[in-house]
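Usage example:
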Amino acid sequence: MKKKIVIVGIGYVGLPLAISLSRFYEVIGFDTNVNRVKQLKNFKDINKQILRNKLKESKIKFTNNIKDIRHSSVYIITVPTPVYKKNKPNLSLLKDASKTVAKTMRRKSIIIYESTVYPGLTRFLSKSIIEKISKFKLNKDFLLGYSPERINPGDKKNTLNKIVKIVSGSNEDAVLKIKEIYSKICRKIYVANSLEIAESAKIIENIQRDVNIALVNEFYKIFSELNLNFDEILKAAATKWNFLKFNPGLVGGHCIGVDPYYLLHLTKLKKIKTEMVSSGRNVNDNMHKYVVQRINKFANKLSKNPKNIKILIYGLTYKKDCPDIRNSQSKRISNILDKKYDLTTFDSLIDRSDEKQFPNFKKNYSKNNYDIIFVNHVHTKDGKKYKFEKILNKNGFLYSLENFK
Amino acid sequence: MKKKIVIVGIGYVGLPLAISLSRFYEVIGFDTNVNRVKQLKNFKDINKQILRNKLKESKIKFTNNIKDIRHSSVYIITVPTPVYKKNKPNLSLLKDASKTVAKTMRRKSIIIYESTVYPGLTRFLSKSIIEKISKFKLNKDFLLGYSPERINPGDKKNTLNKIVKIVSGSNEDAVLKIKEIYSKICRKIYVANSLEIAESAKIIENIQRDVNIALVNEFYKIFSELNLNFDEILKAAATKWNFLKFNPGLVGGHCIGVDPYYLLHLTKLKKIKTEMVSSGRNVNDNMHKYVVQRINKFANKLSKNPKNIKILIYGLTYKKDCPDIRNSQSKRISNILDKKYDLTTFDSLIDRSDEKQFPNFKKNYSKNNYDIIFVNHVHTKDGKKYKFEKILNKNGFLYSLENFK
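Running the assembly step on the lines above writes:
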């Protein structure tokens, strides 16, 4: 009999994982989002990661019914770990998933977390929720693992099968069993010495990106104030053998814009001082304000009634080649500018159901002319057909943080 | 007749440059440091960059006599740009070098700066010193260039001839002429569009390293407080395709520990807010205090009279494989610990004349045993012969920021 694996949370992380595992195991995809389950049953992935045909081929059973996931040998939890308004970790999805697993697991189940957490959280959830509800004892009655997801939405190169997958377990037996599962679907497995080492490794990867983007964002602001072309500076610096190529941009999404707050939550609790991690978040989280400032400056130069100034925001998802709009700073910019100017917004990758979240989203945006165009990003599928100059009024401003030429 | 090139400042940057150029031009190496000139005349480079034989072969004329450098076609200024105690840029060497050039140049001279500066400084020095003293006019009577040095002391791979050399000039003629000179000695030339772009490129390269090391230093402190082995975390994280491999360490020297202050000086003047650049400096500049704290904690555990606790600081230069002790944080640590403990210091690469700058420098350090050994770095030439465990007392502490196993 094939091992049964339940994936709890079938979003950006869970779905590709379910698809890969379903080639070797009986896989059940569980999600509390009824809509998502319904769509997947109809072979539609609005995240545009998995094609219709692949979903049809796979034998994954999608469900939101807790009865369908009882007594499974393996549970893999891949729910998002977002933050509340004030950037405090919102653990409710993780806790709910843990409860669901605790209620449905059997003796000898293996529970693996893939969600990004701060070090110690996996063990804490196991102790405070799984052991309490199930009455099972860790390592005696069940095994625990942490294997951080490294899904990079929109990245066609570093896919699940090609990356090095970190695994860790609550004891040697757990490590062996978890390693066996992931070896089927990932080319290389790296065993971390503890759950906490694996948790820490994941969170510092994301923070390192956040801080490096924050640094170029700060550079961008400094050199713009000095009236120097930052793009030229970056190109020159990039000729050094060890210069790291990061571009200024609006950090959003569910990953590098959020995960640092998880570590910051822990360091606050433990009264450990941080400076780099918190500054990185501060710079990146406020970058949209700088863009708004710049757009206001352009508008002032046009010296019209603001309500007559036509502005286009092009590119609304949190990053290029990804339809995800969670924590999109483009959205924040749109909401601010909408109050003052004649605003149009557009993105070619966004799901139809998300369009209404943006003010004046217009499919036919290119039939108008604009005084100011802010280009957040251009998706690869848009190709080079977008000639923004053509829809820009004379004396208008075409603005973007990166150079799109 | 061969073109005559004067190098002003023949230290870590000037000497390798002089050696390379001397294969194609008549080169004069000028330095106000009488000792340095005398040593070089005797074919001795205490920086250990250039071997005796190479110095003998070269036909460079070393001098501290201003009369020897009159009416040269090209002047290249490579003096250090240090900071004063409170981290304000100390431009005195740069100004003195500019005065020296202004007094000795002729009509049509080309003046190139290689020293790291903040954007705008090259043009400012030309206007405020060179034009004033020489009475020549920029671009009419003389040409100006900026070509940032990318010398990486101790690095045998990225040497002058192999790197991409950025050049920039005050006009097209300057660019052409400067490009011609450097094409002789560097494999690839990159022309930046202005002096300021070239100046900015150089300074952001160094700041990027400083900030990335500051980030891992902060991580190191966080995870040490959480009792997690940071070395294991780094190794696990390094399995991600885009993780950047930086190690915690004591940033010192004349480059990445100093240059950020140059940009910070300018941003302060211009009232531009910085967060990443300043935090980076703050974390790295205080890292030695953290090391002292840790050593104090170890010492407390040994619960002896501090004066009886034997401590060895191994590795005193500011970085591995480089005899330079400028801004060495190992020195700061030694000075603090020396007041309290029975301290011994040692470094295998340091010049004999520098030894007295460290408390209780002992060539025969390995004849004693120690309660605490702090290993800052192990130079490549030391090989693996250093078995610190052999000279460590039972229950003693062997401590280092990096993992030297």
